[in-house]
Amino acid sequence: MAPVQIAMDFSWVFNSREHFVATDDTSVSGVAGRYATALFELARDQKSIDSVRADVDKFAGLLAENEDLVRLVRSPVFTAQEQGKALDAVLAKAGITGIAANFLKVLTANRRLFAVNDVIRAFRVLVAKFRGEATADVTVAEPLNDKNLDALKASLKSVTGKDVDLNVNVDPSIIGGLIVKLGSRMVDSSLRTKLNSIKHAMKEAG
């Protein structure tokens, strides 16, 4: 699906600092957190944070675009050997090498490739914290183009006072609008939620 090309004004979503002030929860936990921490520490020690971040972002992009790759990652039907062989081909074609490639292979060998999206998300949180940035999880109905992403980052920066790194998830089921989670708080301006609110209000009125 092609990125959304229309300009979007996100300032109305964040018209008050009270939405997000003092909510930068940058903790990571669980299996994904442990793997992400190991990856981050290795990348930091090797002074390769930027290149590793670029490679894992590239892999996340492939997952967002390729349903066959999603099945390979998530399906328990494939053995570790089958996943590993297919992953080698994907990484080679995408030009993903070095630390990121080796890490993805470790996830595969340990039968944890199904958690790769959560690991990447946690890794981004750690990188953002290291850089003094905030991290926001954003759910949209359709992909955003660069102009809209920049506008969203600017709106979030205006209320947090920090540069904001975005974890963008495309979920057509929200129909339109967006959901933004920053730290422990969330702004839900999705069309799905608005329609559900109207439906609930109509039931109560009836």
TrEMBL record:
The name this protein carries in UniProt is ATP synthase subunit delta
SUPFAM superfamilies assigned? N-terminal domain of the delta subunit of the F1F0-ATP synthase
Q: Which family does it belong to?
A: Belongs to the ATPase delta chain family.
What gene codes for this chain?
Answer: atpH
The keyword Nucleotide-binding is annotated on this UniProt entry: no
Q: Does the keyword Ion transport apply?
A: yes
Q: HAMAP family, per this entry?
A: ATP_synth_delta_bact
Q: Where in the cell is it found?
A: Cell membrane; Membrane
A GO CC term assigned to this protein in UniProt: plasma membrane
Q: What is the recorded function of this protein according to its Swiss-Prot or TrEMBL entry?
A: This protein is part of the stalk that links CF(0) to CF(1). It either transmits conformational changes from CF(0) to CF(1) or is implicated in proton conduction. F(1)F(0) ATP synthase produces ATP from ADP in the presence of a proton or sodium gradient. F-type ATPases consist of two structural domains, F(1) containing the extramembraneous catalytic core and F(0) containing the membrane proton channel, linked together by a central stalk and a peripheral stalk. During catalysis, ATP synthesis in the catalytic domain of F(1) is coupled via a rotary mechanism of the central stalk subunits to proton translocation.
Q: Name one GO molecular function term.
A: proton-transporting ATP synthase activity, rotational mechanism
UniProt KW keywords: ATP synthesis, Cell membrane, CF(1), Hydrogen ion transport, Ion transport, Membrane, Transport
User: What NCBIfam families would the database entry show?
Assistant: ATP_synt_delta, PRK05758.3-2
- Spell out the Gene3D superfamilies in the cross-references: N-terminal domain of the delta subunit of the F1F0-ATP synthase
Q: Which organism is it from?
A: Afipia felis (Cat scratch disease bacillus)
Stated membrane topology is:
Peripheral membrane protein
